[in-house]
Design goal:
Blueprint (H helix, E strand, L loop, with lengths): L1 E8 L2 H6 L9 E8 L2 E2 L5 E2 L6 E10 L9 H15 L5 E3 L3 E4 L2 E12 L4 E10 L4 H7 L7 H4 L3 H22 L5 H6 L7 E6 L2 E11 L5 E5 L2 E5 L5 E4 L1
Parallel strand pairs: 1-2
Antiparallel strand pairs: 2-5, 3-4, 5-9, 6-7, 7-8, 8-9, 10-11, 10-14, 11-12, 12-13
Helix pairs in contact: 2-5
The structure holds adenosine-5'-triphosphate (ATP).
Length: 239
């Protein structure tokens, strides 16, 4: 994996998405700060210099395209397992946020593009290491940080994340999400909890979260029976 670092950029995901046509293999781009960090559906990821570990990894897949719907959940497994192994207990909120004590510690954004030669994914991740008061105020919701990780050597932390992530991505390309479903379910933050599903802010479903199936869909037990939810752009909230 080729690696590059930058002190500041708008968004590492946007940078790599713009360069996919010229890439020959995986590329990791790490930024100390992002001025226009992205979440899903045009939402933003906020940071300030040194507060978070932020990186994007461009990775080519052989496909097929429909398999890629499970990729954000497989990435969640890779990152959560690594962070847990480093001593910070985290769980996954479907589809792929990492929570610590119920608050968001890390965000993951996966974007894909078919360039003709390969299906590329740009996997972006921001992990809060410290949470200065002014940043917390800007975000305006309950957030988590991991001072224990902040004390680690930044390169060692990145190396631990990258090595597990690369292994998961290679396996995922061969097998799809199925072998990761059990690992995801073991890390599920809201297992058995009553939740609502929001689509553009509006409640579209309510039910008990029952984990993911073998393509990464959320299983929701509703009053009308079990339904499977594709991630698309829906968000979950506890009720
Ligand atoms: P939600 O978290 O609302 O369920 P989501 O999982 O789709 O939605 P993303 O779109 O991936 O979230 O991330 C963007 C959201 O993350 C923002 O709307 C904001 O609430 C939150 N956020 C932004 N910056 C940070 C940060 N540094 N730490 C934690 N959360 C943040």
């Amino acid at each position: 994996v080729a690696i590059e670092t930058v002190a500041e950029t708008g968004s590492t995901n946007a940078d790599l998405m713009a360069r996919l046509g010229g890439l020959r293999g995986p590329l990791l781009r790490i930024a100390d700060n992002q001025t226009a960090g992205r979440g899903r559906a045009g939402r933003s990821w906020l940071s300030q210099p040194g507060a978070a570990l932020m990186f994007s990894l461009a990775w080519p897949f052989k496909g097929p395209l429909h398999k890629m719907t499970g990729l954000p959940m497989a990435v969640g497994v890779a990152l959560a397992e690594t962070i847990v192994s480093l001593g910070v207990p985290v769980q996954i909120k479907w589809p792929n946020d990492l929570l610590r004590d119920g608050a968001k510690l890390a965000g993951i954004l996966v974007e894909t593009q078919n360039t003709g030669n390969a299906i590329w994914a740009v996997i972006g991740c921001g992990i809060n290491l410290v949470m200065p008061d002014e940043l917390e105020a800007r975000i305006g919701r309950d957030v988590a940080s991991a001072p224990w990780l902040a004390q680690m050597d930044r390169n060692q932390l990145m190396a631990a994340l990258l090595s597990r992530l690369a292994a998961v991505l290679a396996e995922f390309d061969d097998t799809g999400f199925a072998p990761f479903a059990e690992r995801w379910n073991a890390l599920h933050a809201w297992h058995g909890k009553e939740v609502v599903l929001l689509d553009q802010g509006a409640v579209v479903r309510q039910g008990r979260a029952a984990g993911v199936d073998d393509i990464g869909r959320l299983l929701l037990d509703t009053s009308a029976g079990r339904v499977e939810i594709l991630s698309g752009d829906v968000s979950l909230r506890l009720i």
